[in-house]
Amino acid sequence: MPIIYLMGTAYMKILTGMTWAGAFTAAVLPFIPLDLFKCVAAALVAKPVQVSLTALEQSRS
Known about the structure:
The protein is an all-alpha fold and 61 residues long.
């Protein structure tokens, strides 16, 4: 995510001529809350999915 944020900020700065702070405020800050939510959701889902896939692999053996 930091790389995506960095590239988006640089792209917006170049295209619009905004300052770095302005581009960061417009291109990154609005997306942080949803991105944090998606990271937490993915972390909560990952373990049950791993357990299910392991059980599925073992049942096929």
